[in-house]
What we know:
Layout: H1 40-44, H2 48-55, H3 66-79, H4 89-97, H5 99-104, H6 135-138, E1 141-144, E2 154-156, E3 165-167, E4 179-181, H7 189-195, E5 196-198, E6 204-207, H8 208-213, H9 216-219, H10 224-228, E7 231-234, E8 243-247, E9 263-268, E10 273-274, E11 279-288, E12 304-313, E13 318-321, E14 342-345, E15 355-356, E16 365-367, E17 369-372, E18 378-379, E19 387-390, E20 398-406, E21 414-425, H11 429-435, E22 443-454
Parallel strand pairs: 3-4, 10-22, 14-18
Antiparallel strand pairs: 1-2, 5-6, 7-8, 9-11, 11-20, 12-13, 12-16, 12-21, 14-15, 17-19, 21-22
Helix pairs in contact: 3-4
Amino acid sequence: MKSYKIKILASGLTILILSSMAFISNKENQKKQYHYFENPQVCSGCHIERFITWNNSQHSKGFTGDFFQAQYYDVVLPSMKLDEKLSEANKDCIGCHSPSAFLSGDMIPPRTVEPDNHWNKSDGNKTRADRGIFCDFCHTLDRFENDPAFNHDYISHATEEVDPKRADLIFPWSPHHETETTEVFEDANICGTCHNELNPYDVWVKSTEYEYSKSVYFTRGILCQNCHMQPMEGKPAKMGWQRPLNSNHWFGGGFTGFVEGAAIASIIEIPEIVSPGQTIDFQIGVEAVATGHNFPTGSVEERDVWLHVSLNKIDGKEVLHIPVPLNKDDPNDKYFITSNDKVAYASHSTLSEPMERDGLPEGDRLYHSAFLDSEGEFTYAQWLCVEEIENRLRPLEERIEDYSFSIPENLPEGEYLLTAILNYRRMPDPLADYLKVDRRPVIQVSKDVRKIVVR
C-alpha cells in the first residue's frame, strides 16, 4: 500500500494539496463516450457472481436510485442559479454518481423513468448514465490527480476498443479482454475519489476516506476494501483459477445489516432496587467498535445514529421515555438532540419550505452532522453548506452520556427494564416524504438492558 504524501484534516480540517488550496478537477480534459464502456451484463457472462453482488449494491444505483433522482432533478438543478459558485454543482453530482456520463460530458442525463432502490432492483442491463458506478469504469481506471484523491479526480484509460481490464490479481487471464495487475486496487484512493468531497464553499461534506486515514485501521494497514469488499476464496471468473484470495463485490454499507454492532451502547451501573419518586442518575457509554471511519459517515447530513433510552415493562412496552439533558454550556447541543421542530430545509432556506428535522421521538441523543446554509439554517443540501457542526463517533471513540430521571410516583411495584437502544437510519423520514421516495428502514445497532425493581 502506498504511503500518503500529504496529511489531511477535514471538517474543521485544512487541506494542503500539491502546495495549493485550489481544487483542480480532471485537468487532463478527458474525452470519453458512453460506448467506450461495456454494458455490465457483458461482464456477467464470465463474472456472474460479481455481477449479482454489484447489481444488488448501492454502486449500481448511483444514478438510478430514487433518492438521487429526486434530489438531483428537483433540488440540485433548481438551486444552481442561486450563486455563481453553484454553476457546476451538477458536475460534482454526476462525476461520482454516473462517471460514464461525466466523462462523456453528459451532465444532465435524461431522468430515469423507473428509479430503483434497495427493494426495487433492476436487471443490470445498463448502457448509459444508468450504470452508476460499474464494472468497466472501475476496471479501466488509470490513476488519480491527487493523493489522497477527492472530488472525482480519477483518470480513465477507457478507449473505443475492448480495453485491458485492471485489477489486483496476480497472473490474471481472460479470453475476452487483456488483463493488467495494478496497485490502484490496493489503495484507498480508489474509494477517496468519490468518498471525499469538497463542496463549492470549501466545506468537506464527505470525508470518509480522510477519516479512515487518521484512524488506527490505516496505521495497521487495514484497507477500506478489507471490510467493504471482503477477501474470499474461489474463482473470480467462470474459467478462472481457483484462488485462495480475491474480493467480494458487495460494497456493503449503511443500507445493510453492516451497521449492526458498529457501535455499542452500555448502561453504566444503576441501582437494582428503587422507590416511586426516587431520582436515578446514571450514564450510558457509547463506543464505536467496528468502523474504520466516523460513524455515521457518507452523506452525514442525512445519516442519523440516535440513542433512545426508556423504562419499559418486562414485555418490552415503553412506560417512560428518558430524554438526554440539554448541555446548556454548548450552544450547538440543540443540533444533537432529536427535534421535530420545522427548522430543516431540503434546499437553501430561501428556496424551500421548512420541514420537521428528525421525525423521531424528541429528546434522544443524536450523532450526525448539521449542515448550515448561508442564512444559518439547517439544510440537507450538502452543496449549499457553508458550515458543518458535527457530533459523530470517531473510530474506537467512547462517549459517556449523562442521564437522570425520576421513578413516577404512581408506577406500580414490580420489575422493569431500563433500556438503551442505538439506532441507525440512512435518511430522516421528513426528507424522504418531501422527496416522495420510500422511507429508509431503521436498523438497530446495539441494545443494552438492565432490570430494576420498583418497591
